[in-house]
Amino acid sequence: MASWEDGVRRVVPYTPGEQPKDLHIVKLNTNENPYPPSPGVLAALSGVTEDSLRRYPDPAAAVLTKTLADAYHVSPDQVFVGVGSDDVLAMSFLTFFNSGKPILFPDITYSFYEVWADLFRIPYQKQKLNADFEIVRNDYLKENGGIIFPNPNAPTGVLMEKGAVRDILRANPGSVVIVDEAYIDFAPEGSSALSLLPEFENLLVVQTFSKSRSMAGMRIGFAIGSEKLIHYLNDCKYSFNSYTMNQAALAAGKAAAEDSGWYRETVRKVIATRERSKKELSALGFSFADSQTNFLFVRHEKAKARDLFQALRRAGIIVRYFDSPRIDDYLRITIGTDEQMDILFDFLKSYL
Questions:
Q1: Hey, which end of the chain has fewer CB within 10 Å, N or C?
Q2: Residue 16 and residue 23: Cα distance in Å, rounded?
Q3: With bands split at pLDDT 50, 70 and 90, how would you rate the model's confidence at 1?
Q4: CA distance linking residue 212 with residue 31, whole number of Å
Q5: Structure confidence at residue 177 (pLDDT)
Q6: What DSSP letter does each residue of 143-160 carry, written as one string?
């Protein structure tokens, strides 16, 4: 006898980081920004009216796309926004990866890529990072149905030089290449692939408000690419859900994008703490790649990562542990405030 379950699409879902309800826990596990968003964000939210909430939001999200276009010196027709960069990336998978050829992404990377590929029945091949956790450019110079990678990569924190990104684009004129720049604002100035857009019609750059703009709770992401790419993205969006951005998110996103000075100062503080943390952790015997993000991906030769993760959890400090091949002896530590990091360092000094 046939079962209704025979027709169910089954996938192994993405596992998000823990969101504890205990506010006293030192939370260093999901790469949130430890500092508040721009004061203009709260002001904008307080200005959201009852009348605006009873109406559907603008399906084109024009107020936000125009603000982002001005901030990044592109046309509004080159900007696509969504409910966090996850929404933007999922829509990009659905839109651009339909050739039947395998798409390419790193073997150690954002684990949602594999989930979306399985969900949308997209064939894929994982390309192995080298021993230094670097993306190997030459692995992406072969036939494919599309390419996606984070830059800097996650969870490793390693940045690929823009020259290598350009080489990958030059070698793949027949594929859409997506550069996921969730952490690019913590990398050296000029690292973004956005400057390559005039050269490559097939380049899509995806960023988020969750990290540098301290708005993970608001869920705002965006993509910038050629007008043709954005047109195709919107066609799929309007065939799926026209009203992706709510009124509050549009207002808050506009305010955050306009206050570049606030988020740049926030980024400066995170980077300063990150560099200090590298020195502290190195002195404690940890090794790690030179992260250009708001987290460090660390291992200790004498302390097993799983044991250390559990000991930290018992002490009220949460970091991220990935029980996966090649990285099961590493911990990913989000950069918090200096006070939060001091609590971490004090515990490690007593534990090790």
A1: N
A2: 18
A3: low
A4: 10
A5: 98
A6: --S-EEEESS-TTT-PPP
